[in-house]
Design a protein that fits this description.
6-stranded mixed β-sheet, 946 residues
């Protein structure tokens, strides 16, 4: 609608030379059509058709095409898709086949308009991929026009395209990209507002759309404020029919926000306030009925909810001409949820099958679920499958019929398959995190279903399914990064394309850091950042389409099986415990070479508080309570979390895959039979079992070499860098200590700059950083490690997590001997967003990091003992365990024996030895020496006899 009025200018300019009588008749018909354009569909259609007929008789193609374009806009305004389709075809026929358009000056304008209208038409059909293609084609045409040559129509069209692309990405769950296009639109409007008719309306319309992204990001107050501001603007224009749809949609979005926030009365108040809602010509009446129903469902007024859903269903079915469509599936899904709320599983299952019937063009059996590739929307299918799963859970709980449980298992597998397909559609890391958060509860419900089945069957196949459910939504974003090297090597992507992707990614990071640090005017940087992101996501689309092998290797999903895990992880024994924390339970999947168990442990808010108290007692030791509180909580947490999983498990080597608050627990400090687990177990950690397997696949370095950094910090640097770093008194001692065991490049004091680290970091298989660190919970990508300030340079001296996404390491081990390098923001589906995770993105095979602020002095001994163990061929987990035990043995001061001083360090990833002790070589050497000795002895003895 944004550039709708510009066509009038062309019409009135072009008809000035026509015969007066002909022009008058055309003007009269056209002006009458304009009067009804927003208020009376039938009258508008009649007069536009009259104008088109007169223009056709008079061979006036300017007026004919202009009037048809207006008619198409009216079709859009009244959501009349049948007429919309017909008139698009008429426009295409006239532009393509009528010789009277040849050489017509304005025909290119109408060809561009046709691309836009096709995009709008397919958007209204919810065929978002097709709509996006048309909008991007037109976008390319307009962007090719030099900025100084663009007309007001070009600028207005670009603004409209940005809005539609934002809407398309929002509807498909890609909120970061939606925000990107809305921001582009607002910048364009601000820059060229003198060229945009009613630029304020255009700006408020985009802000209205942006509010939905803010709501998803958790900024509900900001979203509501934007909508209220928008409503006030449109209320002043309520008597202008041109703004009716803007006015209505702002009310609808505000009501939606209140519904998402559980404020049902406020939602109803907003819906009731709008006096235009109940008018017969309201194009949003179908959606409004759904919102009324949602509000009444939230208030548990099921009768009213059912009535409004029924009205919406009838309206959508008629509107979509009784053909299968996701709008109809959407309402059927809502009604199935209504019956779920009433515990009426039979009606609910009936309606969910009707939803499936309308969610794709493929006819299904009575109980079948659609395949992901056949669904109109995989995101919708995922939500519908979840509703069905809940209905089947309810049915089985009420009837105990195994048929329902069997169907629930099948539906769980279909959810996994749909999620695998859906992930492939997402490019943005942030959008993937939103997806992970959205599906998180679904995976918990699947585990509930599978556990109920396991309790009866004890089947290994059931445990394997549970493991795949637990793994699917565990850190899949990191997993894609770990697979990048293999995808790059075997994906057949030209090197220049890969280099372009890396360059764009690095440039985006640079601008984001500049904006975050505030080193330059953000208003100048943001347009450049937006252009870079547009180019980057466009390139990712190209990679997806042109190089499917690369895309499949990097983003595809594999099913885990116990045989692979055992052959890879348990060659020398060992066990793994993978946890999944839900709202009320803690699931544990336990696996070793011989057994597998699936456990459901009670876990309450009191248990979470124990973890919080345990972490506090460790990280901020109290002289008053000393070690007693640590021991009490360690005993209690062992009973709650590990006692059952470790029952009948004798393995000394233990891998923990934590979830939720368990990330804060150093498991070797839990106590069994009065002793730390440290005394009997070598414990390591993983983000997921799949990620550990991927890390083990990576080739090891043939030569061992440490790159060790010990930066220097003083008051002058603190002032220069605007961050307060205390002086580290012993970090150079730490580096000197570990250098005794491996060939080490020591970078100390003022030489330990970020610039030198970037140059040297890819040359060593072990990296040791003894420095300051800071975790940023609000903005996890801006947690950082500190380096020495480079002399005579204004370059930043901190290494952000965001920087690590663009650094390539070939390190078997990275040790982050700094404060809280393993702690950050807990993100559902992604675990702990910490500095250590950033190094996995960069290419590390394993990490030693810290759970709290460490003591500089005690770290010297601990790290020396650790590297000593590594040099003797111990696994990284055993080397760290032995280092802690040796620290305790060699420390007499009871205060320094408190776990605060030695237990913050944990190891994760591929914990296999850095060096391998080859006993056959020793035996061979011994045999050779003995053989030589024997020969010499025989020779001497023989001579003595002679």
């Amino acid at each position: 609608m944004k550039y709708f009025h510009y066509i009038v200018c062309f019409l009135f300019t072009c008809h000035s030379g026509w015969p007066q009588g002909e022009a008058s008749n055309l003007d009269d018909a056209f002006n009458r059509a304009l009067e009804y354009h927003y208020v009376n569909k039938d009258s508008a259609y009649v007069y536009y058709e009259k104008t088109i007929s007169l223009a056709n008789e008079q061979d006036n193609m300017d007026y004919l095409l202009g009037s048809l374009s207006y008619l198409i806009n009216a079709n859009s305004n009244f959501y009349d898709l049948q007429e919309y389709r017909r008139n698009l075809q008429r426009m295409e026929d006239w532009l393509g086949n009528d010789s009277r358009t040849n050489g017509l000056e304005i025909s290119e304008v109408y060809k561009n308009r046709l691309l836009f209208d096709k995009g709008n038409f397919h958007y209204k059909l919810k065929e978002y991929g097709t709509a996006k293609a048309y909008f991007l084609e037109l976008y390319s045409i307009l962007k090719a026009i030099p900025e100084e040559q663009r007309t007001a129509l070009d600028i207005d069209t670009l603004s409209a395209i940005y809005s539609f692309l934002g809407l398309i990405y929002r509807h498909t769950g890609k909120y970061e990209q939606a925000e990107f296009y809305y921001t582009q639109d607002l910048n364009l409007i601000a820059t060229f507002r003198d060229s945009i008719e009613d630029w304020q309306s255009a700006s408020f319309n985009t802000k209205k759309l942006l509010s939905q992204v803010l709501e998803v990001q958790g900024n509900t107050v900001g979203a509501n404020d934007l909508l209220k501001e928008t409503l006030e603007f449109y209320k002043a224009k309520v008597n202008n029919p041109r703004f009716k749809n803007n006015f209505l949609s702002a009310y609808i979005l505000l009501a939606k926000n209140y519904l998402k926030q559980g404020e049902y009365d406020n939602a109803l108040a907003v819906l009731n306030e709008n006096h235009l809602i109940n008018t017969l010509d309201n194009p949003f009446s179908k959606e409004i009925n759904v919102l009324y129903a949602d509000a009444f469902l939230g208030k548990k007024d099921y009768e009213q909810a059912e009535e409004y859903y029924g009205q919406a269903l009838d309206a959508y079915t008629t509107y979509r001409q009784y053909k299968a469509h996701q709008d109809i599936a959407y309402v059927y899904g809502k009604m199935a949820r209504l019956y779920l709320a009433q515990d009426n599983f039979k009606e609910g299952l009936n309606f969910i099958q009707k939803a499936f019937y309308n969610a794709s063009n493929i006819k299904l059996g009575s109980d079948n679920n659609p395949r992901p590739k056949d669904a109109f929307s995989k995101l919708q299918l995922l939500n519908l499958l979840d509703i069905k799963l809940q209905l089947l859970q309810s049915a089985y709980a009420k009837t105990n019929h195994l048929t329902y449980e069997k169907e629930a298992i099948i539906t769980s597998k279909d959810i996994l398959a749909t999620f695998d397909e859906l992930k492939l559609e997402f490019d943005s890391k942030l959008d993937k995190q939103y997806l992970a958060e959205e599906v998180y509860p679904i995976f918990h419900r699947m585990l509930d279903v599978v556990y109920d089945n396991y309790e009866k069957t004890g089947s290994a196949n059931t445990v394997e399914l549970a493991l795949n459910i637990a793994e699917k939504n565990k850190d899949f974003v990191l997993l894609e990064a770990l697979r990048d090297a293999q995808a790059t090597r075997y994906g057949n992507v030209p090197q220049q394309v890969l280099e372009k992707e890396a360059r764009l990614r690095a440039e985006i990071t640079h601008f984001e850091k500049e904006i975050f640090d505030g080193t330059e005017d953000a208003s100048k940087l943001k347009p450049q950042l937006l252009s870079l992101k547009q180019a980057y996501y466009g390139l990712l689309d190209t990679l997806k389409q042109k190089y499917p092998r690369y895309h499949g290797l990097k983003y595809g999903s594999k099913t885990l099986d116990f045989a692979t895990i055992r052959n890879t992880l348990f060659k020398d024994g060992g066990a793994i415990v993978s946890f999944t924390l839900t709202n009320h339970h803690l699931y544990a999947i336990v696996l070793n070479n011989e057994k597998q168990h699936f456990l459901k442990l009670p876990f309450s808010e009191d248990d979470k508080k124990d973890i919080s108290d345990f972490y506090r007692a460790l990280s901020k030791p109290s002289l008053k309570n000393g070690i007693e509180e640590v021991n009490v909580l360690g005993n209690r947490l062992f009973e709650r979390v590990l006692k059952q999983p470790l029952k009948d498990i004798d393995s000394q080597n233990l891998v923990i895959v934590p979830d939720g608050e368990l990330h804060y627990v150093p498991f070797d400090l839990l106590r069994e039979n009065g002793s730390y687990l440290l005394e009997t177990k070598s414990i390591s950690y993983g983000n997921s079992i799949t990620s550990i397997l991927e890390l083990i696949k990576k080739a090891k370095s043939k030569e061992n070499h440490i790159l060790a950094y010990a930066p220097n910090f003083d008051d002058e640097e603190a002032v220069r860098d605007s961050r307060q770093f205390g002086k580290l008194l012993y970090n150079d001692d730490e580096v000197n200590g570990i250098s005794s065991y491996f060939n080490t490049q020591k970078v100390l004091g003022q030489n330990a700059t970020l610039a030198s680290f970037k140059v040297n970091s890819s040359n060593s298989n072990m990296i040791h950083l003894a420095t300051h660190a800071s975790a940023n919970d609000a903005y996890p990508d801006y947690s950082y490690l500190a380096f020495s300030q480079q002399q005579d340079s204004s370059e930043n001296s901190v290494l952000y997590i965001k920087d690590l996404y663009n650094i390539s390491l070939d390190a078997d081990l990275v040790t982050l001997s700094a404060c809280q390098t393993g702690i950050g923001k807990l993100q559902k589906g992604q675990g702990m967003l910490s500095l250590s995770k950033g190094f996995y993105y960069a290419g590390a095979k394993s990490l030693v990091n810290t759970l709290w602020k460490i003591n500089d002095k005690s770290s010297v001994k601990l790290m020396e003992f650790f590297y000593e163990g590594l040099s003797k061929g111990k696994s990284k987990a055993k080397a760290l365990r032995d280092a802690k035990l040796k620290y305790l043995e060699t420390t007499d001061d009871s205060l320094l024996q408190h776990p605060y001083y030695w237990s913050a360090f944990v190891v994760s990833g591929d914990v296999s030895p850095i060096t391998t002790t080859n006993y056959w070589w020793y035996l061979g050497s011994l045999f050779l020496v003995l053989s030589v000795f024997y020969v010499v002895f025989r020779y001497k003895r023989k001579r003595s006899f002679n």
